[in-house]
Amino acid sequence: MVDVELDQGYYDRGIAARRNAHTHLEDVTDILTGIEDEADKLLADLLANLVRTERG
Predict the structure, then answer these.
(1) Which pLDDT belongs to residue 1?
(2) What Cα–Cα distance (Å) separates residue 50 from each residue in 6, 29, 38, 54?
(3) Which of 10, 13, 22, 31 could form a disulfide with 6 if both were Cys (CB 3.0 to 4.6 A apart)?
(4) Does the residue 46 lie in any domain?
(5) CA angle, residues 48, 31, 45, in degrees to nearest 5
(6) Is residue 10 a part of any domain in this protein?
(7) 39-35-47 Cα angle (round to 5)
């Protein structure tokens, strides 16, 4: 087993990276929800068109 000593900068960089990622990713949930809503609308429209085609 090898002992590795990590300097405080290692931890500081990790904390900064996580904080930075959190800041940049905070809108992802809202963006994905919007995409899901649009996909649901498209699917509903597609199914409605298929039903009309089968009847017509």
Answers:
(1) 86
(2) 62, 31, 18, 6
(3) 10
(4) yes
(5) 5
(6) no
(7) 5
CA 16/CA 22 separation, integer angstroms = 10
Total domains in the chain come to: 1
Residue 56 has pLDDT above 80, yes or no: no
Nearest Cα neighbor of 37 from 29, 48, 47 is: 29
Specify the amino acid at residue 54. Answer: E
**pLDDT score, position 18:** 95
> DSSP state, 6?
P
pLDDT tens across 1-49, in order?
Answer: 888 888 999 999 999 999 999 999 999 999 999 999 999 999 999 999 9
